[in-house]
Every structure is written in C-alpha cells, then in structure tokens.
Amino acid sequence: MKYKDIGESEKLDQVIKEMKNIFRTVPYGVDHTMKVLENTRTIIERENVDSQTGCIIELSAVLHDIGSVEALRKYGSMGGHLQEQEGVPIARNILSEHDYEPFVIERVCYIVGNHHTPEKIDGKDFQILWEADLIENMQVMDCTKDTETLRQFVSKKIKTQAGKALALCKYS
Length: 172
Description:
Layout: H1 6-22, H2 27-46, H3 51-63, H4 68-75, H5 80-97, H6 102-112, H7 124-137, H8 147-157, H9 161-171
C-alpha cells in the first residue's frame, strides 16, 4: 500500500502493535490477522483502490477480530457475533487514540462490527476485507477439496476479480 505521507504508515504500524498486544495470549490471532492483512494488500493493489479507501481496508483487516479475546474472556466463546459485538469499542478506542478522522473510525467500526455478516456488506472496502478474511479461512473449509468445488465456491462467494484470482492461486 502506498501512502500519501509516511505518517499514515507509522499510524498503521502502531495499530498493528496494539493488535499484537491484545492477542498476546492468543498467538494464532496475530498470525491470522497478518495473513488477512497480506491478502487485503494483494487485493487492494490489484483492484487499484485509492489510498484513503486502502487505509480503511487495512485498518479493518488489522482490527477485524480484535474483539475475539474479550469475547472469550466474557462469554467463553469467540463466536462471530460476539467478536463483532466486542470488537467495535476496542477498535474505536485504538483508532481514536491514534487520531484517525471520525469518518475513518466510523467506517472501520462498521466493518469490524459486521465482518461475520456478509448481508451487511455495503461497499468495496467491506467487500475486500470480507474476501481477504474468507480466503484465509478457506484453508479449513471443504471448498478446497477439489478444483471444481473450489471454482464454484469462489464464483459464488467472491466478487472482486483480484479476490477470485488470489483464492484460486492459493488453493488450486
């Protein structure tokens, strides 16, 4: 991702650092998040997304599962709806601490608060995050068992051309 100024990149690095701290007791959370961020960056680059939208998508990738540790602590479960519920206030706090614009905070929080609910996808930014997360999660799904099943799954679930290409490349 190319930023207009180095300040945005440094702010993102600080958000990543905070995410890693929250996931210190759940190391696979960091690994998953960084792989989703990598997928996100690949799709952003191939879809020629503008820098402001790219920033929102990257922040959403870094923070998408941020509520899982709190959900586990409170409810003994990392269920998707609990991650969404617990993630929003944590994401809002982190983004506010790093002086992100209110519209960025609201958009990232909307995506974090709905990232397990594909019916709520309402823009390319959310679509790209959802695809990047799905592509990472596909490794444990039956959809990768054979080429035809994979192609049908990708055709049905993934909308961006870059997301389709990435999923097929990863699992073919």
